[in-house]
Design a protein that fits this description.
The chain is α/β, with parallel strands linked by helices. The protein has two domains: 107 residues, no CATH class; 133 residues, Rossmann fold, CATH 3.40.50. The chain is 40% helix and 17% strand. Strand 3, helix 4 and strand 4 form a beta-alpha-beta unit. The radius of gyration is 20 Å and the shape is globular. The two termini are 27 Å apart. The mean pLDDT is 89.
Length: 252
Amino acid sequence: MNPERLREILKCVERGETTADEASEKLRVLGFEDLGFAKLDHHRGLRRGFPEVVFGPGKTPEHIAEIAYRLADTGQPVLVTKTTEAAFDAVTSKTRGARWHPDARAIIVGEFPSQRRGHAAILCAGTSDIHIAEEAALTTELMGGHVERVFDVGVAGLHRLLAHQKALTNSDVLVVVAGMDGALPSVVSGLTDAPVIAVPTSVGYGASFGGLSALLAMLNGCSPGVAVVNIDNGFGAGYMASMILRASAGHR
């Protein structure tokens, strides 16, 4: 359920094209749907502006397929993050129109919005960070934002970043993904007046402690205007970027 679908149902009642009981039946999923192994929050889109997203790890392909089918059946876009091709095969066996995005390790059911608002730049330090950056980019696009991808511009070769100055200055928000020393978000923040969302990744050698060193470096960055999400949380960064784009579009 999304705001547009809710208004459509209410308009039908207003015009006398459907009865109150029929509308009530269509709205009955405003609570949640109990599948036994999962309870689907069908009206999250009304509260948060985007439907419930499926976190892939820990779920069987069959459970992911059933959840995706139930969500898609209500007309909502479906996003499954950090998942596998086996899960995608299971989803396609039940739901038409599913697409596998290998770079983001994500499944999408439904169409991207035809109207976009705001501009986000998604940057990553190295090619090993691309799957997290793509997760952020895909989330932002599915939530209706314009996205420009700027990959492999880490501080080991700062001239690569400076070649994309236009992307830095023209964006309403930037998502910066980095592992290793986690220095890129602070550098980017010093080159733009837009808010920066930093994403530490688990990429790095032993002393990176699975991304913990990058996380701490980003939290201790010296440039203001940087917010930090959890390790490998490209989805969370893309979601927050989209909320910033929506808020700034509404303000304008």
